Amino acid sequence: MKCALVRQDGAVVHAERHPTGAERGPAAVVDTILDVAEGLAGKARADGRTPVACGIGVPGLVDETAGVAVWSANLGFRHVPLRELARDRTGLPTALGHDVRLGGLAESRLGAGRGVAHVLFVAVGTGIAAAHLVGGSATAGAHGAAGELGHILVRPGGPRCGCGRPGCLEAVASASAIGRRYTALARSAALSPGGVGASGRPGSVGATTPRTVDFPPGGAAFGAAEVADRAAAGDELAGRVWREAVEALADGLATAQALFDVESMVIGGGLARAGARLFDPLRSALRERITFHREPRLVAAALGDEAGCLGAALLAFDSLEQPWPCG
Ligand SMILES: [Zn+2]
């Protein structure tokens, strides 16, 4: 959990990190969130500041209007009235938001999308999700589920996604999917004698791959950054996996551009740290797919993993300006 005291101008005056401890179950996670929020408000007062609002961001399905964490795969939330709970604990007006939409909110107002009216923020990490921002506000959708870019179908019959369907974008192009796919192909190629590559065609795997690969211990998968490094160093199998992921991502972004017609796409999450190794081929692949639409500017996110935390603060300040008090 990334936590902070944030001034109204977006400046962070104090930051803390706490383990989520999701394995303890959703009730314990909620307790920790409330304890941290109360602690931060106390810290602000002890420092002579006046806390005016509390903002919380969580993953999954979030009903921002009702202030309810509706559903989260990783945290086990099922209809948790988090806004009310935090308001009761801290005594502060509270806003609840979705982690990726909050990240997008912060990037659009304080980060890489600053000064741009139409922005799509795309987080590519263990999954892929997006937030569409217009004039610095994120659209949440009718059911709090807008922006699930990771679950658009890009490869029918492809790898099975966590949602159960084969071929979703995040099953091919998320950082986790890239690591998993390279690891599986490299293992099977290393096991097959005679230089038969994972595609089944002799000679399809280069001389540097994959027999020299030192696999991570305990059956773990390589990270996407490692795959990018190996691809850049001439590992053909890594190059293939990386290329396929970039092309799938470009398919997803081209679809998003057809829907949203944005000026900038801000790419965040772990995969964006690959820098030019991601952005150079991704720009080319997206350009190839754009016909009559305007090509969006592809830029790396600027706020790192604190974006969601900053966005929660921005949402909390926004809620104070609503004609009806939020919470
Ligand atoms: Zn899916």
Q: What is the residue-averaged pLDDT?
A: 91
The chain-level structural class is: alpha/beta
Shape from CA axes? globular
H and E string: EEHEEEEHEHEEEHHHHEHEH
Q: Widest sheet: strand order? A: 10-9-8-11-12
Low-confidence stretches: 196-209
Q: How many beta-strand runs? A: 12
Largest sheet: 5 strands, mixed
Could you tell me the radius of gyration in angstroms?
A: 21 Å
Count the DSSP helices: 9
Multimeric state: single chain
The ligands found in this model are: zinc ion
Give the fraction of residues assigned to helices.
25-40%
Taken as a percent bin, the fraction of beta residues is 15-25%
What's the N-to-C terminus distance? Answer: 22 Å
Keywords:
327 residues; five-stranded mixed sheet; three-stranded antiparallel sheet; binds zinc ion; 17% strand; alpha/beta; 9 helices
Give an account of the 3D structure.
About 4% of the residues have low confidence. The chain contains nine helices and twelve strands. It is globular and about 65 Å long. The strands form four sheets. Strands 10-9-8-11-12 form a five-stranded mixed beta sheet. The protein has 327 residues and is an alpha/beta fold. α5 packs across α6. A hairpin with a 2-residue loop joins β9 and β10. The chain is 39% helix and 17% strand. The chain binds zinc ion (ZN). Zinc ion (ZN) binds next to loops.
